[in-house]
Amino acid sequence: MYKKEGNYAIGTMKDIKAFGRSGHDFVYTFYARGKKYKSVCSAGNLSVDEYSKYMDKKFLVIYLNSNVHNNRLYVSIPVNSSDNEKTLKEKIDKNVYVKRKLDSIPAPGYFWENYF
C-alpha cells in the first residue's frame, strides 16, 4: 500500500519508554504536511547500552497519505537531516537494499499506532 499512498518523512528518535518488565518503545517525532507528529515503535531486544546510540538520530518514516497516523519508523534506514520528501524518494528509488526492505511492509493494520 505504501507504493500508492506512502509518503516519506524524517523521524528523530527522542526517548525510550519502558513498559512491563522488559519491554521498551522508541518515541520519535516527524513532520508531515507542516505539522509535527509523535509516535512510538518497539525497540525490540536491544540492551540498555544500545538504546543511547539511537537518541537524536534521524531515520526514515513512511506514513500513509490517507492517514498520517499509520506510520512506521525504520531504524535500519538512517537519513540526512538535509533531506526532504523529494530527495528521500529519489535516494530510496536508487537503493535496491532499501527498496527490498520497504517492499516487505505489512498492510496498514500492522503499522504502529501513534500516541499523542
Helix content: 10-25%
Q: Which range does the strand content fall in?
A: 35-45%
Spatial order of strands in the largest sheet: 3-2-1-4-5
Number of strands: 5
Q: Number of helix segments?
A: 4
Oligomer: single chain
Please tell me the overall pLDDT: 80
Distance between the termini: 24 Å
Rg from C-alpha positions?
A: 14 Å
| Uncertain stretches of 5 or more adjacent residues | 108-116
Give descriptors for this structure.
alpha+beta; 5-stranded antiparallel β-sheet; 116 residues
Give a concise summary.
The chain is an alpha+beta fold.
Question: How would you describe this protein?
Answer:
This protein is α+β, with helices and mostly antiparallel strands. It has four helices and five strands, in the order αβββαββαα. It has a five-stranded antiparallel β-sheet with strand order 3-2-1-4-5. A hairpin with a 2-residue loop joins strand 4 and strand 5 (67-78). The two termini are 24 Å apart.
